[in-house]
Amino acid sequence: MVSCRRDRVRPMQSWNLQEIDLADGTRSPVVLFSRAEARAVLIGLDPGQELGDHQVKEAAFLLVVDGSAAIDAGGGNRLDAAVGTLIAFEPNERRSVSSDSGARILLVLAPWPGAGHYAAEERGTGA
Q1: Where are the domains of the chain?
Q2: What is the CATH number of domain 25-123?
Q3: Best exposed site among 9, 34, 65, 81 by fewest CB in 10 Å?
Q4: Model pTM score
């Protein structure tokens, strides 16, 4: 008998980023997708809210889905981003994101998790 291995193809997934409830702004980000390839997180910024100065171990892509956001990155770079703006960050690049009028942003981190993401990995103890 011949055995055939068939790789399972995952079905297509889709999300309407305008309709997902983000009632608590930055306190309630929604993880849409999370596998080794990438993690996608939808984040709401209520008027005046911000994601303070931060960095991640992964490459990061930020898409402004609704509203507008101000992005401050290392070296004094500032970008006022409108709907449809896509920004790419290198791993460990520092940034902050804020919105005076409110915004909805999609953050994609790849690969997930990036090397050194977990403190145990950084200590060499595994995770």
Answers
A1: 25-123
A2: 2.60.120.10
A3: 9
A4: 0.80
